[in-house]
Every structure is written in C-alpha cells, then in structure tokens.
Amino acid sequence: MFQFGFNMFPEVPRPFHTTYKCYSVAMLPGNERQDVERGGKIIMPPSALEQLTRLNINYPMLFKITNKRTNCKTHCGVLEFVADEGNVYLPLWMMHNLVLEEGDFITIESVSLPVGTFSKFQPLSADFLDITNPKAVLENCLRTFACLTTGDVIAVKYNQKVYELRVLETKPLEAISIIECDMNVEFAPPVGYKEQEHTKKVEEEEMAVDPADLMPEPSGFVAFRGQGNRLDGKKRKDSTSNDVPTAKPTYIRGIPDYDYQVGSLRFIRRINERPSSSKETDAGEEFRAFSGTGFTLKKSRD
C-alpha cells in the first residue's frame, strides 16, 4: 500500500492583488522617516504580510503599483509592515510619478522581475555635473531601491540637495530587479545641457599695436638717426626711398606718453598660441561624461 505525502507536489505561488489608500511618507504617524523618502520601497499594513505568507510568493517581495485613474504604473519593494490597515505609504517622488494625491486608491500586485544588467539615467538639471563622483553617489542611492522602471523619475539626495534622474532605459526588460546584481550604468546629457561653443582662432596673432609706437618721440641727439649716401650722389639700384628703416625707440614699461591725445585709446595684444590638441574641436561631439560606467549592487534580501 502506497502512502503519498502532502508535499509531494510543490505549491504554485498565487498572486497578491489588493487595493489600498495611499499617502506620502510625511503622513506616516510617528517620527519622520527619511529612510523611506530616499529609497524605492513602501510601507504596507501587517495584514499584507499575513496574506503574502499564505500565498507563498517568490522572494524578494516585489510589487507593481497601478493608478487606474491615470493608468500610471511603477514597481517597488517593501520596507516594513507597520502601516495602518487599509493604507500604504509611498515616497513623494513615487507619488509624483503615479500622479497621486493624498488618499487616492492604488492597486498593488506581486510580480517577479528579472535581474537588471543595464540602465541609463538622464539628470533633469545640469547641476548634477557639479558632483565630484556622480557614479558613486548614484550607487549609494540605489542601495535603497529594489527595482527600476523605465520612465520613472527618481530622487537622489546629496549634500542637502535633491537631484532628479529620469530612468531612460533598463535591460533586459522595462522593469528590473537591482537586488544583488552587476549592472552597467550610463548617463545621458542633462536636460538643458549645451556643448561649449569652441571658436577657431588663428595660430599666430599679430599685435594690433607695436609697443614701440607707444613710446614718445626721442628728443635731442639720437645716434645714427640719419641715412647714408653714395659719394657720387647716385642711388643704389637695389634700394628705394621706402627702404630706409625708421629708428624706433626701445619699449620700456612705466614711461608715460607725454604726447598723449585725449580721446585715443590703444591696446597691446599678446600672441597666444593654442596647443595643437585643441586647434580643432567638433562642436557636435556627443556628451560622453560618465559614459559606460558600471557598479555592483550588494544588499540584503527583504
């Protein structure tokens, strides 16, 4: 006689699908929860944990949030199960993505997402380029996220300032899990960013004014100021009257021009030679700052 055990066939996970009222983290009773505001996880009621345990869902717990009124969707993880029954608390940036107001109804359902391999972000402000190491700042921020969704605008806080980044692309799907993954990251040019316009300059620029011309005319005896003549009175065949050099005084800084006329200004321009590497710059060169960087996200499972 054969005896069959109760666990002979594995239990098939059943989906979690519930509707809640949503509020921002600022409405959560108790002390201010900045850890929730800076991450990509939500706070759910204790009854949700009991129901999730009975359904035997896959871990880590990932959810899809839908605002049926606007048909906006995003994905998130869960941080704690301490919310009031019937309510969930979301970060403010997530409520903005879903176009939600305080007390609106949202639908939360459990999902299973693939591990991310690639993501591309676009800063919404050029101020993000002022950060010394943007890759390290983003890596530290994403440690509090469980997943990413293409089209979302996430908030990154650094030095008491909040920077917004749009998720332009994720691979292998439009929604990915970033828990314990090796992911390549790229940055697109920030919104409003313009390439510096490089103008081509002449390699050698002549001075507009000879410094010797600024010196006053010499007075008194000047040695060798005259010109030579032939004894026979004839002119040289290879010379003209214009070939006679005009003696100029040596330019000495600090001597004022006593013959200065009011209303005339003359400036001395120096010869600036640009390095050969910067002679020609393509103004349409693509933005390549922080391109192709990657990092490893290591975090504990929920």
Structural write-up:
This protein has 302 residues and is mainly β. The protein has four helices and 13 strands. The longest helix is centred in the first third of the chain and has 10 residues, at 46-55. The protein is rod-shaped. The two termini are 44 Å apart. Mean pLDDT is 77; it is low at 197-205 and 277-286.
Brief summary of the model shown:
This protein is mainly beta and 302 residues long. It has 4 helices and 13 strands.
Sequence of secondary-structure elements = EHEHEEEHEEHEEEEEE
Radius of gyration: 37 Å
Give me the oligomer status: single chain
Q: How many strands?
A: 13
Span between termini? 44 Å
Q: On the 0-100 scale, what is the average pLDDT?
A: 77
Uncertain residue segments: 197-205, 277-286
β content, as a range? 25-35%
Shape call: rod-shaped
Helix content: under 10%
Structural class: mainly beta
The largest sheet is:
6 strands, mixed
Number of helices: 4
Strand order of the largest sheet: 2-4-3-6-1-5
